[in-house]
Design brief:
Number of domains of chain A: 3
Strand order of the largest sheet of chain A: 2-1-3-4-5-12
CATH topology of the largest domain in chain A: Rossmann fold
CATH class of the largest domain in chain A: Alpha Beta
Structural class of chain A: alpha/beta
Oligomer: homodimer
Order of helices and strands of chain A: HHHHEHHEHEHEEHEEHEHEHEHEHEE
Number of helices of chain A: 14
Number of strands of chain A: 13
CATH architecture of the largest domain in chain A: 3-Layer(aba) Sandwich
Largest sheet of chain A: 6 strands, parallel
Largest interface: A-B, 48 and 48 residues
Distance between the termini of chain A: 80 Å
Helix content of chain A: 40-55%
Chain lengths: 348, 348
Amino acid sequence: MKPTLQDVANAVGVSRSTVSNAYSRPDQLSAALRAKILDAARRLGYPGPDPTARSLRRGFVGAIGVLFTSELSYAFTDPFAVRFLAGVSQVAEQHSTSLLLVPLPHDRERARAAVDNAAVDGFCVYCVGDEEHVLGAIRDRGLPLVTTAPATAGPADRFVGIDERAAARSVAAHVAGLGHRRVALLGDTVLPDAPPGPLRLAAPGDAPRPTTHGRLSGFADAFAAVGVPWPAITVVNAAGNSRAAAAAAIAPVLAGDDPPTAVLACSDVLALGVLDAAGPRSGLSVSGFDDVAEAADAGLTTVRQPAEEKGRLSAALLLEPPADPADGHVLLPTDLVVRTSTGPVPRS
Amino acid sequence: MKPTLQDVANAVGVSRSTVSNAYSRPDQLSAALRAKILDAARRLGYPGPDPTARSLRRGFVGAIGVLFTSELSYAFTDPFAVRFLAGVSQVAEQHSTSLLLVPLPHDRERARAAVDNAAVDGFCVYCVGDEEHVLGAIRDRGLPLVTTAPATAGPADRFVGIDERAAARSVAAHVAGLGHRRVALLGDTVLPDAPPGPLRLAAPGDAPRPTTHGRLSGFADAFAAVGVPWPAITVVNAAGNSRAAAAAAIAPVLAGDDPPTAVLACSDVLALGVLDAAGPRSGLSVSGFDDVAEAADAGLTTVRQPAEEKGRLSAALLLEPPADPADGHVLLPTDLVVRTSTGPVPRS
DNA sequence: ATTCAGTGCTGTATCGATTCAGAAGCTACC
DNA sequence: GGTAGCTTCTGAATCGATACAGCACTGAAT
């Protein structure tokens, strides 16, 4: 087998501790002896202190876990998630801390096992869908935790996010202000296992995903304010957060009789899919959410939330815990970005 | 302190082994006893077997390291890298294996330390620039290794990539076939620390980065074949793989007298930057490399290489080592994709 | 000559689990 | 009744390092 620290110690004729010091605390021994030890180590083919053993003894790992409550590839597929990760990685890099991306099986038991097996000093959870059991598993391990979904943040958890409802209200108010009254709201997996297309949702709050919940509620608020009651609004479900899924979901609605004059989507990606389906110059007003890079190119009206900043803060909250726990909950600002994809109701 | 497995064992009055079995090998004890143990564990607040200790004892970790030989945020900034990661994550997910993204300090000594400290079962190295010392550190640890840069792959290493030179030759031949003779080649960090803008490069092979090296060589091949010698070609250096850096680097060249009629970039991102700088309908022919999503929208002529497949194969080579070591080196196919960004030389 | 501080190194305890050979108890069958 | 064969559980050894108290020695100050 591979030589261990002990073998090197034997070869040189010193104690294990000294060899350990040669690697980790060079100031604790003479330069000459250190050179001799490193030399012997090289000769023996000693690969250096084992990181696992070192972590065990030291009591910390030097890595934080990043969890996406969905397929791991979501993290690299969704443009907003990618920028979030970019932010996380910047701060991690400053702290010489690694990022452990843990794939989360759908099966609850296996998901818990995945959390339990992750060798990390804390978790950063990017909330996509239903994550309560994941958060529970993390809390059970007693590890520090930062989430991006407000409703789910426990008292000891740190949190960074936006006021989803108010942000959604701001775009919706803009659209309502343009005169739209026949509107559709488009979300990803509004209800679990719901088929793509229009959906019956008794109240916006019935959507289990916290972000969807918040955004639909905000949309509803703004339309209620101009006299459009919830039941008069069409809710459309997309089977996934992708342009294709959005286009497929919205197509029947646009083709139906009495189609909406505006579609408010819960994400830019979905909104872009609506534009794909509607075609340019259709007169349909479309709004998105997040303000990803593609939104600007497409002239999409949307709500900007600071993606990288969200990631940076998440990591910072984990790696530089605030002295005052009250500072552990951060609400980021959002901005309504009006572009060309929304306009007045066509006369026709 | 937190209770350990031993504490649970004491509480229930069984041996440590039995508690361990309750967690990891449920078939080794009666259901009744197992329930009793898990119950006691819950009561005591035992967080479950410590992943670090478990890894130490078991001898493996259940994670693979992913290294970018540049800032970690590059991984999330460059669209090609993102898709590569998406591929890696898909296969990792199938194997219930986590991904450890390790930030690599520029300082060589600290970079080695970062590699040495990573608790992983193997490494996947996405080669951006100079990585020889990083690969050396990994080999010294005796861990399996997959790289994406051919020149640097040691005999025992696995490798997945493309024939950079032949791929580059194919776009360049296309551009040459359109009649272009006054051309510029644009690369990111062609020489370390070189300023942005035109550059003196004695031979394509003098570029230290292996991919740049390969691509410039391929470009040179194709132009040599139509009688344009290397010294007649302008090589331009961009300070970073971004649109902005590319635009800044190419601007003086386009503004100079005797500007090129075509620019061949070493990546799509750079090519898009050239288009930004040149403006639409400039008559300038521009080609890219990789075929990222944005390339299609911009009508960019480019060489497609299968990004996700590259990632998937990298991970697969690590997680399902081929029986025959000869299968450890994979060369992926590339395709010339001709779009509207290249055309005949304008008369003027 | 004696104390003191400082350097350089050693030994032992410890981190928290897994592994595996084997003991104990229990059923079953000839 | 004895032995074989299970299932269930135990104990000791082990994984590979780090932390810390303490010992021996050196050189300077008292």
